């Protein structure tokens, strides 16, 4: 079995077990049956009860995290180093979840669901604007001085070097990202600077420039925020769900997790055209052979799949296989495809998963691309 198929089955196990837990909790009404009424005597006891539920879920995922972080990997990290990184990521996420639960519950109790939704949106915007900080806190991603090579490549790609950050992460699949509410800063992994040729690095950055110039990243963010907000509104209005009690809030968490699962299955359809559009943007100003060699080199640090079965790609992968991307590049010399630009929303799925931290979503670090890899819990891998 290939590395990509092993990761896929691991993700199916992580997502599947979380979804089954949420379904069982809702069908059997476990939050209301098992959580003591004493949990709601004070806000502190309610938040402690909610935090305990999330920690039990983290414990359930721990064996899969071990497999995903130490066994099915491109490069095996030192065991102690991985344990420290995993604990750091879990603690940071746990602290954020406790804060989010407290804000949402207090707002819901005092002002109702409408104001709680406003707080939910504001928390997503905070996560978005401080994505780099959260990646450093949870994923141990380190900021480095900008190298001359990266500065030159950024200039050649049409990106101001002052907006670029060179970062190091203990994970070959880390691809960085545009960060900030409207792509103010670009994080670039040091591995790219170290191992790509100058021409390939320029192409990789040109693709990022296209993502911003074509509005693909902005659309991905808007889709993610809208999807999560609608899902949280529906979850908070679902049967037995409320923001008033610990049991009701855990029920909201379960419904919101199921909504995230629907997003995991459907939103990749919006992401794939955006990847192809950014490929064509780079192709418009760079040699086709260099663009294809860059795609091949970057994909080797990801799933490294030349081709996939259409059904698997449609459901599980926001990044098309290399063969699909190459065919799209060779089909047209135009910088973008009108349909792709109109419908593309760059990595809407993976942005949705990160921003689901605002609603204590259960799938944000259970999918195949980041389970067991704390460096990828905030900036999920991609093209």
List keywords for this structure.
mainly alpha; four-stranded mixed sheet; 17 helices; 383 residues
Indicate how many domains the architecture comprises.
1
Number of strands: 4
What strand line-up does the widest sheet have?
1-2-4-3
Strand count, sense and barrel status of the largest sheet are: 4 strands, mixed
The Rg value, from CA coordinates, equals 21 Å
> Treating each run of at least 4 consecutive H or I residues as one helix, how many helices?
17
Description:
The chain is mainly alpha-helical. It has one domain (1-383). The chain has helices at 3-27, 30-34, 43-71, 79-111, 113-129, 131-139, 148-156, 190-195, 198-213, 216-236, 246-266, 268-283, 288-300, 310-316, 322-331, 338-343, 348-355, and strands at 142-144, 164-168, 177-179, 185-189. It starts with a helix and ends in a 28-residue tail after the last helix. The relative contact order is 0.16. Mean pLDDT is 91; it is low at 336-342.
How would you sum up this structure in a few lines?
The protein has 383 residues and is mainly alpha-helical. Helices cover 66% and strands 4% of the residues.
């Amino acid at each position: 079995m290939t590395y990509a198929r092993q990761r896929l089955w691991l993700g199916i196990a992580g997502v599947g077990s979380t979804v089954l837990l949420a379904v069982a909790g809702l069908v059997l009404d476990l939050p209301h049956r098992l959580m003591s009424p004493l949990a709601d005597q004070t806000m502190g006891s309610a938040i402690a009860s909610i935090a305990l539920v999330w920690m039990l879920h983290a414990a359930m995922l721990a064996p899969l995290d071990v497999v995903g972080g130490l066994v099915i990997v491109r490069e095996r990290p030192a065991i102690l180093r991985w344990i420290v990184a995993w604990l750091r990521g879990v603690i940071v996420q746990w602290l954020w979840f406790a804060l989010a639960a407290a804000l949402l519950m207090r707002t819901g109790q005092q002002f109702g669901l409408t104001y709680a939704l406003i707080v939910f949106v504001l928390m997503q915007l905070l996560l978005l604007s401080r994505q780099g900080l959260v990646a450093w806190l949870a994923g141990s991603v380190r900021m480095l001085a900008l190298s001359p090579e990266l500065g030159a490549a950024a200039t050649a790609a049409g990106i101001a070097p002052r907006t670029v950050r060179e970062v190091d992460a203990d994970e070959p699949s880390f691809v960085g990202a545009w960060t900030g509410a409207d792509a103010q800063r670009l994080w670039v992994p040091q591995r790219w600077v170290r191992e790509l040729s100058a021409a390939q690095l320029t192409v990789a950055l040109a693709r990022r420039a296209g993502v911003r110039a074509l509005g693909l990243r902005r659309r991905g963010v808007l889709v993610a925020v809208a999807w999560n907000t609608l899902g949280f509104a529906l979850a908070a209005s679902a049967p037995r769900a409320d923001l008033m009690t610990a049991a009701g809030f855990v029920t909201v968490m379960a419904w919101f997790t199921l909504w995230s699962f629907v997003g995991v299955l459907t939103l990749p359809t919006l992401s794939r055209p955006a990847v192809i559009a950014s490929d064509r943007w780079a192709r418009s100003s760079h040699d086709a052979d260099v663009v294809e060699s860059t795609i091949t080199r970057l994909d080797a640090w990801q799933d490294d799949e030349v081709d996939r079965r259409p059904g698997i790609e449609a459901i599980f992968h926001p990044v098309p296989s290399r063969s699909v991307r190459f065919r799209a590049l060779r089909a047209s010399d135009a910088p973008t495809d009108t349909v792709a630009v109109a419908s593309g929303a760059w990595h809407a799925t993976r942005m949705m998963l990160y921003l689901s931290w605002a609603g204590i979503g259960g799938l944000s670090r259970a999918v195949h691309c980041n389970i067991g890899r704390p460096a990828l819990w905030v900036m999920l891998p991609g093209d």
